[in-house]
């Protein structure tokens, strides 16, 4: 089972799946609460110069022994960085993977999440036996195939100064110990708050309190990326799959909670739809309905987190012979 969640993590996990026997699923622990930004003008952003992936790379090395080396130099021009990529591709051994960020909205015939443009996105590239053609591997969108070199280069250059790229040598992939998986889960699990819902509620409340047509219209750009961020909530399914392998739960049990994850994502879709309607019509009366959908999202997610922790407790007792500590109590939802 493969789920689109986070383009960088999809690339990293695909390398693990293709190069070793390690279970990649623990790497998704905590992705449901992965970092995002709220810009100075109050917009949700899944990509920002203030966000760093270094913690993800550190965790990747810790779990699987694979180090990500940055080949993209922010001090160089976009054109010079493309030249560096070309040089790496010329000398690319079979076990080396080259990751690059590009604006996928610039690639012909490729979809983007929520139809966004620009759409910063990580995928992997390598040479073919034709100079004008590259092999493109996009695990997040479950697509691989040949693409015109000029199209891919144009999409890379479209990122301008915000580009990024990494290389990973995967000659030997390690498997994390059960003790490490246990520690990693507890480090990444945050039951006390649901930050995405909190931030959306704060953005909506500020617009409603201001009350002006301009403030309400700002909800359109402010929450434009909400549906992209909501996709990360599907990461709960990886945790549930991982723990149920030990606990022996039925497929129906898994589907019950997978449906709750789907319900959670649907509440964000509803909230986004309402925000667009408020922004375009100025109907402040819809704000209450929008906030109610966020309350529902908060309630659903707390229930999912309780179930994930309960399954973690069963897994821990089965694998390590010790129960999990009590689940920390959630923080009070801000008014």
Please count the beta strands (DSSP E, at least 2 residues each): 8
Q: Could you give the order of the helices and strands?
A: HEEHEHEEEEHEHHHHHHHH
Helix content range: 40-55%
Q: Total number of helical segments?
A: 12
Specify the CATH architecture of the largest domain: Alpha-Beta Complex
- Low-confidence segments, given as residue ranges, are none
Residue share in β-strands: 5-15%
Mean pLDDT metric: 93
How would a crystallographer describe the biggest sheet? 6 strands, antiparallel
* Shape summary: globular
What are the key terms here?
335 residues; alpha+beta; Cathepsin B, Chain A; 2 domains; two-stranded antiparallel ribbon; globular; DUF6005; Petrobactin biosynthesis protein AsbE
Which helices and strands appear, and what pairs or packs with what?
Layout: H1 7-19, E1 37-38, E2 44-45, H2 54-64, E3 68-70, H3 78-90, E4 96-103, E5 120-127, E6 133-138, E7 143-148, H4 149-157, E8 165-169, H5 178-188, H6 195-210, H7 213-217, H8 219-222, H9 226-230, H10 235-247, H11 251-281, H12 286-320
């Amino acid at each position: 089972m493969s789920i689109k969640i986070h383009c960088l993590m999809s690339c990293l996990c695909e390398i693990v799946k293709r190069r070793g026997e390690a279970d990649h699923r623990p790497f998704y622990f905590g992705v449901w609460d992965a970092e995002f930004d709220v810009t100075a003008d109050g917009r949700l952003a899944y990509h920002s110069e203030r966000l760093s992936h270094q913690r993800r790379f550190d965790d990747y090395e810790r779990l699987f022994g694979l180090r990500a080396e940055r080949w993209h130099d922010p001090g160089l021009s976009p054109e010079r960085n493309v030249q560096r990529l070309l040089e790496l591709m010329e000398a690319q051994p079979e076990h080396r993977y080259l990751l690059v960020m590009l604006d996928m909205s610039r690639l012909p015939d490729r979809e983007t999440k929520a139809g966004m443009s620009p759409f910063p996105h990580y995928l992997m590239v390598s040479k073919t036996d034709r100079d004008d053609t590259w092999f493109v591997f996009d695990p997040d969108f479950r697509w691989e195939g040949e693409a015109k070199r000029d199209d891919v280069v144009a999409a890379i250059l479209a990122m301008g100064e915000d580009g990024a790229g990494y290389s990973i040598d995967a000659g030997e992939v390690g498997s994390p110990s059960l003790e490490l998986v246990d520690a990693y889960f507890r480090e990444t699990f945050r039951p006390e708050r649901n930050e995405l819902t909190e931030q959306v509620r704060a953005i909506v409340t500020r617009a409603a309190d201001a009350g002006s047509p301009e403030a309400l219209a700002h909800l359109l750009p402010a929450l434009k990326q909400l549906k992209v961020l909501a996709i990360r909530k599907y990461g709960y399914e990886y945790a549930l799959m991982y723990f149920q392998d030990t606990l022996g739960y039925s497929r129906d049990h898994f589907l019950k909670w997978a449906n709750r994850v789907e319900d959670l994502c649907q509440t964000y879709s509803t909230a986004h739809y309402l925000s667009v309607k408020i922004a375009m019509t100025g109907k402040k009366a819809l704000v209450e309905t929008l906030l109610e959908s966020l309350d529902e999202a908060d309630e659903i997610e707390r229930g999912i987190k309780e179930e994930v922790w309960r399954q973690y407790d069963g897994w821990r007792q089965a694998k390590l012979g010790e129960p999990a500590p009590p689940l920390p109590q959630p923080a009070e939802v801000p008014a």
